[in-house]
Amino acid sequence: MALLKENLPSVQKAAQEYEVHSGSTAEILVVDDGSSDDTTSLLPLEFPKVNLIERSVNGGFAAACNSGFKECRGDLVALLNNDVQVARDYFIRHAEHFVDPQVFAVTAKVFDWDVPVFVTGGRFGKFRRGFWSVYFNYDVSLPEAKEWVAERRLLSYYAIGGFATYQGGKLREVGGFNELLSPFHWEDVDLCYRAWKNGWKSIVEPKSVVYHMLSGPIRSNNKSSDIANIIRRNRFLFVWKNITSPKYLYFSHLIPVFLRSLFGGFVADIDFYRALFSALMRLPLAREHRRQERQRGRRLSDEEIFELTGSLLNGDTTREESTAPTKG
């Protein structure tokens, strides 16, 4: 509730600006995922125009968001963590991109909460050390990148779940977040990857600004070692359920993982084995989700997605590496 008091007013102001600009109606929903404070009693008093969805038991990020998605009535669905503040034109900037029918999701340019330091923007990825890595940021700072901004060609491998806007129909078609990855992290990567396979793209809007408090609810309620293990586990599950290309599945993932499994004991790689065992416990579910995804039929292959996102970002942006997701 303390975070909502601090940050929800900025969302309300941005929603009002969007209504004036677009002539459309905006609704704000707050999903309370089994909180233990006084959120459910105080929210209707502090923010009477905000709709509250109460979950009696904490189900994690994906389940909570899916509960909210089901109640959203608009054509566009904007997802925001409660530890972010948004600029007044945040929703206006995002909505402009959805005139393109291929756009699935839009993410924002993010600054640190306390100081105006760039934290994250668009994301690109590559296979590294046996896993698909998406912890690479890019910002638009070169003069030649102005053309990209003007033509709205700033692709992002995924839209970060803490500050993303989705096309509602497409979001429902792909089924929202996959709760296999609960309680948190990598569900936004997985969602956008499934959208890429449908031929839909995710982009970053550098004029849409967010200020993010990095010490949000996930970090404050979980041990850092547990968070790190969940991230590692979900990186396994992401590959197992989504990657179908033999080139990437076998040569970029399974063979490096097999070799690391053989020799990891010599360097006491306990974290690797812990995450692998945790992922293997969910392997039957991952295989079932993989089967379901393949039955849907896909327009783009893994090779086409990696080539598209890699080639369009190459050479037109400045990059820096981040070691962890900024969601939560």
Query: Order of SSEs, N→C?
Result: HEHEHEEHEEEEHEHHEHHHHHHE
The low-confidence parts are 315-328
Query: Rg to the nearest angstrom?
Result: 20 Å
Overall residue-averaged pLDDT value = 87
**End-to-end span in angstroms?**
15 Å
| Overall shape | globular
Main sheet overview: 6 strands, mixed
What is the count of β-strands?
Answer: 11
The proportion of residues in beta strands is: 15-25%
| Main structural class | alpha+beta
The share of residues in helices is: 40-55%
Number of helices: 13
What's the SSE blueprint?
Layout: H1 2-22, E1 29-33, H2 39-46, E2 51-55, H3 61-71, E3 76-80, E4 84-86, H4 90-95, E5 103-112, E6 118-120, E7 122-128, E8 131-139, H5 146-150, E9 163-167, H6 168-174, H7 187-197, E10 201-212, H8 217-221, H9 224-242, H10 246-263, H11 270-280, H12 283-296, H13 302-313, E11 318-321
Parallel strand pairs: 1-2, 5-10
Antiparallel strand pairs: 3-9, 4-10, 5-6, 5-9, 7-8, 8-11
Helix pairs in contact: 9-11, 9-12
